Amino acid sequence: MRPFPQTAEGLTTKGVILRSRRSSAGPKDVNRCACKTRYASRRKSSAFSCAVALVLFCALLFAGCGAARPSKYYELTLPGENAADPPAANLFPVSILVGPLNASHLYREDHIVYSSSAESMGSYEYQRWAEPPTEMIQDLIVRTLRSSGRYRSVQTLRSSIRGDFLLHGHLYDFKEISGASMAGRLGIELELRETKTGATVWTHLYNHDEPVSGKDVSAVVAALNRNVHRAAAEFAASLDQYFSAHPPTNQ
Predict the structure, then answer these.
(1) 112-131 residues labelled b (16+ CB within 10 A) or e (exposed)
(2) Are strands 111-115 and 165-177 parallel, antiparallel or unpaired?
(3) What is the pLDDT of residues 10-27, one digit of tens each?
(4) Each residue of 150-182: pLDDT tens digit?
(5) Are 157 and 100 in contact, with CB atoms under 8 Å apart?
(6) Which is nearest to 96 in space by CA: 236, 216, 241?
(7) How many CA atoms lie within 13 A of 40 on its CB side?
(8) Element (H, E) at 5
(9) Environment class of residue 100 by beta-carbon count within 10 Å: exposed (0-12), middle (13-18) or buried (19+)?
(10) What's the whole-model pTM score?
(11) 12, 149, 218, 232: most buried by Cβ count inside 10 Å?
(12) Where are the alpha helices (DSSP H) in the chain?
């Protein structure tokens, strides 16, 4: 093999050529790597943005679906007030205070309760009472006794009002019964207490399943409404019998 010239000029020329080759190859490789890095970074950023947009879209879609279903509220119908003054001969000279009803927390809230068996109970999420059942039934009893025109006064129990008798009780059942035949069940017991002595002078228990003429919740509400009116009329008639058999003196 022929030796390469060892002249200073040859070394200088070779060194220049080698340096030239190294300097010309280095920047191209660096530029390629930088471009590939930026391209991969842009792809990752774009994929992440698409994933975030998809998640936000799904969240808005589910939120819109949830808000699209409104709640429905129901209430019991109340009897009209008796505007005419009753004859003095038919008036019992007593004032009655109607206290709140004791009940399970289910009936002290506004949910409509249903039961498929004696052990299983639940409540509708979007079908509700306008007021808790204990308060609605209390108001209905007050209005029923007032409209009878048999008492000097009938008021809801409040701290500033005094009466001769206190009428209060317990609400046991106020719910839909589902099965082969649907019904609106009402179980309620009232007692009358003389305020002076604290003695209980009258009690009455009411239990009845009112048939439901339909399959929807509004039909159940109608059956429960009829049941409460029937109970209030029965209570009023029983109280009338008690005071007729035990005429009160002027208080």
Answers:
(1) bbbbeeeeeeeeeeebbbee
(2) parallel
(3) 444 444 433 444 444 455
(4) 999 999 998 788 899 999 999 999 999 988 789
(5) yes
(6) 236
(7) 6
(8) none
(9) middle
(10) 0.71
(11) 232
(12) 8-67, 133-148, 217-245
